Amino acid sequence: MAAVCATSGELSLMDKGIKSLAELPLSSELHTLNLHCNLIARIESLDHLLNLQHLDLSSNRIHWIEGLSCLANLRTLNLACNLITKVEGLLHLRGPDYKINHIELHSNCVNNVNHLLQCLSGLQYLANLTLEKNGKSNPVCAKRGYREILLQALPQLTILDGKNIFGEPINLMEPNSSDLKCLEDLLSCLVSSYTDEEETDVNLPIMTPRIDQVLAQFRQRTKILPCTTTSSSTEIMSSSEPEKIKFDNDSRIKKLEEQISHLLQKVTNSSKADVTMKAKKETDFTSDSGSESGKENRKATKRSKLPNYRKSTLSTKLRSQRGKLSAREQEKDFIKPKFQESHIKEQESSSPASEIASLKIVGKTPKKLSGLKSQMKTLNVDSGIQEEFTYRALIQELDQEREKRWKAEQAEKKLSESIKQLQNQAKEEKDIQSVAVYTTDRLRELILRERNAKTRLQIDIRQVKEEAEKLGKELERSKQKEEDQHKALQTLEEALSKLESQKAHQQASEMKRIQTAELKASAAEREVQLLRISLQQQKEKVEQVHELLRLREQEHRKELETRVTLHGSEFQEALSKEVAREEQRHKDHIKELQEKRHLLNQKYKDLEDEFRIALTIEAKRFSEVKEGFDRLTAELAEHKQVLLQSQQKEKQSASLIHELTSVVKEQKDKITEVIKSKQDIVYNLKSQIQTLENMVEEDQQKTIQLELLKQEKSKLISQVTAQESVIDGLKAERKIWGEELAQQGAALAQDRGKMEAKIEVLTSETEALKKQNESLNDALQIKSKIVEDQTETIRKLKEASQNRDEQIRKLREDNIEMQKRLQVQLQEKDAQLDNLLEKLERQNERKEELKHQLQEKDAELNDIKESYSVMNKKWQDKGGLLSKLEAQVKQMKENFDIREQQLREERDKSLQAQKIMMEKLHSVDDAFRRQHESTIAAHQAELLQLANEKQKQVATANEKVYQVEEEMRQLLQETAKNKKTMEEKIKWLTVALSDIQQGL
């Protein structure tokens, strides 16, 4: 690689894993250096590269710009795809001594516009700056009006981000600087060859060592260029220079052409001066005689190169050769203008061909000199035989000059062929470079996509871990709840054991019900006997119906015998009438279908109008959904407060119920003790005891109902706890949603703006398409009407043809010739019909194509609707959670109301049964009251005492409940105070944190 640098001055080390520039032994003759896609972190060890013009350090790990102060000849700098945040290193490139004009900084981390302007304001020759390319930009590019700010602050800029001042994209095709160097070498070669030709003798052959060196450089460059084209993806961008460099290169080429033309003028002037000096020394003969004698002598020397031994024979030979020389002179005069015309055409060709033209002219100058010398020397033909030797020398010089001209022409051809090959190679190299740039850009985009996907996956993994931790906590909570539920189940099992004892009492009551059911069964048997009697009566009626059917069958057979046959004339006439009716019905049906088709078309138009209205309605609904979402959030907070209050009330009621159950148990124990103590008295008063037992059973039923209510309350409490856990989860999710919404707010706002713009564009497109569809539908309706008219004409033609066929059948024998004519006419009409049918088929195909287009447009509209529905679904899912919670609460309320209704119905039923039993008991009690009034009075006195005791116990229980309520109020007040203190602490912490952040 060092050898390459020494010859061409170019070095490419793409993707070599280089970590620092200090490791590279760079030669001071380098003018292009490509270090794309390496691991370089600093710009260093470049102070000795004084001739460096192109530097490519893209796709590295550079954080800041430095070490460029000694690169005075640097023109293009490529630092794309790095980690640069500040551009302070460009301050060292200020002033007229530095000629940097192209900088690439896209895909970096430049944030501050003012800092960038401070660092770039002193770069006088800066004409091309790229901060954004192919979607890869800097954070500065996202700011509003950054392009206008840069163009106003940097007037020397002509191209920014691949666009000119007017925002039009520009494809920069830079001429290679090495071509200009080669042209300069050719110019120096021409100057040196001119001086060498003046010094060397004319007889020597042309030697062009410098031209051969230049050709060798061109050939080496063609070998090196293919390896450098594939070196880096950004090499084209680094070699691309602005219009100012183009102007400089064009001016340099013009200067070279002027220098070449100046040299040619010098050569022609010097040749003319030599000719005039020689003409003055010769005799004063006329130009015509001199030219003729010179040509004759040239011809003589060419024809007779051997020496003349006798002077006497020379005059005769010269006379004989004069005629031949005159013919040779005419041929030479005819060749000269052609050569001059070809020389003029080659001078008017392109700039690279100007070098070849200069070489041609340099080869021509000795020809003119030799021709003029020969013309001047031929004037002295009559002087004598001594001048023959000079003629021979001149002829030899002419031959040498012709050989030189032939060699120069061949060199010109070789140079033109080599230039064409170089141009073709340059085109191929540009194509390869464009392909390489495209592939590298694609690879960069793929890498960036993979990086983005990787970051997204990492974020998803973090979220999944957080969710797993939350789920673990919820599992622990659920386990605790399960343990609590197991305990509740144990209590329920105990309650079930009590219920079984109560069921035994219920079975006794069921036995009584069975007795009543048996009585009902005996009544049902009686009803069955009555039904059997009615069945026998119905059987007799059925037999009578069978006899009637037999009689009717006989009558039907008689009617069948009197009916008309199928092949009769009357039957056929009836059939023909019915067929005509059916045909008319069919025609009417076709007309109805056509009317339905028109109605359907109108409905289709109405549906389109409704679809337009629906779009506007959906937009309004979207706004209403947003407002509803905000309202629901406010209502959620209110419902949560109500939930907390209801939970507190339920806790208080639960404590009261527990105390009441304990009181009821104590009362039950006391009642059992009283019953045991008074069993002796109860034997004599069975009727009263039965009444008391009934009352006790009712009390037991009520206690059972109370226990059932307790169980339901326990279930409700468990459900409430579950809902609390769900609410806590929803709170956590709400916090997460709040964070996500805060993060996605800006992105959604941007996306919303883009989507709104897209929706506006799409709505305009849909409106245009609908208008087109309406116009097409109108055209279809017109065409369908035309088709209907044509079908009517076809029907008329068919009817006419049928009439004609009937006439032809009658007059076949008389009108055979007329039949042939009619057949010809029918064939023509059939051809017309075929054409019309083909037109119908084409129109149907067009209709199908239009339907396909409509389907495609509908598919596009469906895609838009799907994207719109996706946005709606996100909001609907969030509203769905709230609606689910509301539905659950409503279901709980409904279940509770249903249970209350069931209990009330059971209570009403029990009250009715109690009333019936009480009526029976009153009838029985009336008989025993008279006998046992004294005993009842004593028993009532005892009951009054028990009631007083119960009232006292209830009063004590109420006092305890009041005390508990006061304690709960105190606890609530304390919790409210604690909440206030915590809120004040949190506010103080937030204020402190905000102050700390502002200080940072």
From TrEMBL:
Keywords of the record: Cell cycle, Cell division, Coiled coil, Cytoplasm, Cytoskeleton, Leucine-rich repeat, Mitosis, Repeat
Ranges of compositional bias, category Basic and acidic residues: 275-284, 326-348
GO biological process, one term: cell division
Coiled coil: 391-649, 682-712, 752-985
Alphabetized Pfam families for the sequence: LRR_9
Localisation per UniProt entry: Cytoplasm, Cytoskeleton, Microtubule organizing center, Centrosome, Centriole
Region ranges (Disordered): 269-352
GO terms for cellular component: centriole; centrosome; cytoplasm
Superkingdom: Eukaryota
Keyword presence, Cytoplasm: yes
Functional note: Required for the organization of the mitotic spindle. Maintains the structural integrity of centrosomes during mitosis.
PANTHER family linked: NISCHARIN RELATED, PROTEIN PHOSPHATASE 1 REGULATORY SUBUNIT 7-RELATED
Family (UniProt): Belongs to the LRRCC1 family.
Protein name: Leucine-rich repeat and coiled-coil domain-containing protein 1
